[in-house]
Amino acid sequence: MNMNGSYKNMRAFIYVLACAMLVLLSSCGDDKILAEVSAKLTVRYPENVNNLEIVSEKVVFTNLTSGEKTSVVRHDGIRLSEGLYDCVYSADVTYDHGEGKEATTVKGRLTGKAENIELTATSEQLEIETFLSAANEDFIFEEIFFSGTLRASGSQYYGDGYIKIFNNTDHVLYADGLAFCESKFKSVLYFDYSPDIRKDTFTVWSLYVIPGNGTDHPVMPGESLLICDTGIEHRVANPNSFDLSKADFEWYDVSTSPTHLDIDSPTVPNLDKWYCYTQSFYVLHNRGFTSFALVRIPKNITKEQYLKTYLYTYYYTMYLPQGTFPMQQQAYKIPNAWIVDGVNCSVQSSRLWSILPPSVDAGWTHVGYIDKDKTRYFRSIRRKLQFVDSKGVRHLQDTNNSTEDFNTECIPSVIEEQGSAIGADATKATTLTYDGVVPRK
User: Fold this and answer.
1) For residues 70-98, b (16+ Cβ closer than 10 Å) or e, as one string?
2) Which helix (H) or strand (E) holds 9?
3) Closest Cα to residue 206, out of 365, 355, 359, 333?
4) Which of 365, 367, 433 lies closest to 405 in space, CA to CA?
5) What is the reported pLDDT for 267?
6) Please, which residues have CB within 8 angstroms of residue 213's CB and are 6 or more apart in sequence?
7) Helices marked H in 271-396
C-alpha cells in the first residue's frame, strides 16, 4: 500500500469535510438571519395630558419560549427572532398638572404592556397603549407573605400571613385611611366578563382599612408597618411559625360559623373591615393567584356609601363538556384612580392574564413556579433594595413593574428577624437581609 498516497487522500478528505462543515455552519447562520424579523413599534400616549415630556424610556421584549429579554431604544427598526413575546414599555416623564396659572410641572411615569405578541416575517407594525401615573408619594408594598408555613407533620398552618407597607418617600406619611385589598379574579382563570370594566376598575373580595383620624399613625421615611392575619405568638400552635403579637394591625372577622371562629388578638389593633367575601375568617390566597392593592378611598365616601355605590354585577359564560352555562355574579369594585400601589401575582405554568392594568403594575411576580408548588411555603415576595443612604435609610425600587421590582421565593423578613423556621424540618434562619437577597451589613 502506498502510505503517502493514503495520507494525502486522508488530508484531502478532511479538507473537504471541513469545507462542508463551514458551509453548513454558514447556512445555519443565514437561517438565523432569515429568522429575524423587523418591525416598528407605535407607542400610544395618553390623551389630554398637557406638555408631556419624555425624560427617559425603555422597551423590553421577553421571549416567552426562551425567557430571553431584549431591551430596545428605538421604536422603529426593531429586530428580533421570530417567536412569541411580551412587550413592556416604561418611561419617566414630566407633565403639567392643573390649568392656567395653577398649572405646575410634575413628575410621572408611563407604562404599557402588550402580551403574547407573535412576531413573524409579516409583522411590520406593533402597537402598545400607555398609561400615566403620578410619581408615587404614598405607601408601597414592601413584602407580601401569603404562602404560609407548615407544621412538623407537613400539613398547612393558617393564620400567619402578613403584608408590610413601606414609606419610600422623603417625608412622613400617615397610614390613617389606607386600605388593603385582594382581587376576586384569579390570574389562572379567565372569562370574557361583561360589562368589562377592568381597564378602569379593580374587582375585590376583601377590603380592610387602617383606622385613624388622619394623623394617628405616622410612618417615617424608610420605615414599615406590619399588617397581619392573626396577631398572636403562632409558635404556641405551630413551633415552625413565628411571633406576630407585636404587629401594627391585624384583620379580624366576626365569623357566622361556630366551628370556624377567628382569633381577636388582645395586643394588636384591628383593621376596619369594610368588606370580605367570607362568612368565617379571611386568609390570603396561599397559592399566589391573586393581585393586591393599597388604596386611598376619598375622604367623602363612607363605608355605607361605598357598599351601596360600588357593587359590580357581571356576566360571563362557562364552557364545559356538559354544556354552556351563562353565569351572573356580584363583587365590589375599586376605581384604579384610588390605587396607590399594586402587585400582580401568579405562577408561570398556569398564568393566563394580569388582573391589575399596566398603569398600576406592568409585570407580575410569584412565590412558586407551578400550581400547588410544595416549595412555596416559608417564602415571600420582597421589594428590591435600591440603596441605603448616608443616614442609613433604605430606599426601595418602584418602577410599577413587579417583575423588576420584587425578589421572589425569599425567606420572609419576620422569619429572618426572629431566627424562626424556614422549613417543616425546623431548620432556622441565620441570615439577615434588606430584601431577601442583599445581606445587611
Assistant:
1) eebeebeebebbebebbbbbbbbbebeee
2) helix 3-35
3) 333
4) 365
5) 98
6) 176
7) 303-309
What's the burial of 435, exposed, middle or buried (CB within 10 Å: 0-12/13-18/19+)? buried
Contact 145, 414 (CB under 8 A): yes
Residues 41-45, mean pLDDT to the nearest whole number: 88
pLDDT at position 71 is 87
Q: Give the mean pLDDT of 336-346.
A: 96
Whole-number Å distance between alpha carbons of 254 and 264: 9
Residue 90: what are its φ and ψ, rounded to 5°? -145, 145
d(CA 109, CA 403): 16
Using alpha carbons, select from 200, 160, 201 the residue that is nearest to residue 183.
201
Residue with cell 409579516: 122
CA dist., res. 374 & res. 368, Å (int): 8
Q: What angle do CA 165, 228, 428 make, to 5 degrees?
A: 95
SS3 at position 293: strand
- The alpha carbon of 194 is separated from its chain's Cα centroid by a whole number of angstroms, namely 25
* Mean pLDDT, range 201-220, rounded to an integer: 97
Return left, alpha or beta for 77; rule: phi > 0 is left, psi -120 to 50 is alpha, else beta.
left
**Are the C-beta atoms of 252 and 244 separated by less than 8 Å?**
no
Exposure of 384 in the CB half-sphere (CA atoms within 13 A): 14
* Nearest by Cα to 195 from 48, 329, 375: 329
81 touches 35 (CB < 8 A): yes
Preceding peptide of 195 cis, ω within 30°: yes
**Residue 298 and residue 66: Cα distance in Å, rounded?**
44
| pTM across the whole model | 0.83
**Quick check: 334 and 202 in contact, CB under 8 A?**
yes
* Rounded-to-integer distance, Cα 229 and Cα 282, Å: 8
Closest C-alpha to 342, from 402, 384, 396, 383: 402
pLDDT at res. 81: 86
pLDDT at 74 (0 to 100): 67
- Residues 124-143 have a mean pLDDT of 86
The CA-atom distances, in angstroms, between 35 and each of 70, 75, 282 are 16, 20, 51
- DSSP-derived letter for residue 104 is E
What CA–CA distance (Å, rounded) separates 204 from 312? 10
Decide: residue 328, CB within 10 A, 0-12 exposed, 13-18 middle, 19+ buried: exposed
107's grid cell:
413628575
Q: What is the pLDDT of residue 187?
A: 96
The closest alpha carbon to 409, from 440, 377, 385, 362, belongs to: 377
Which cell numbers in the block locate residue 430?
Answer: 441565620
CB 203 within 8 A of CB 185: yes
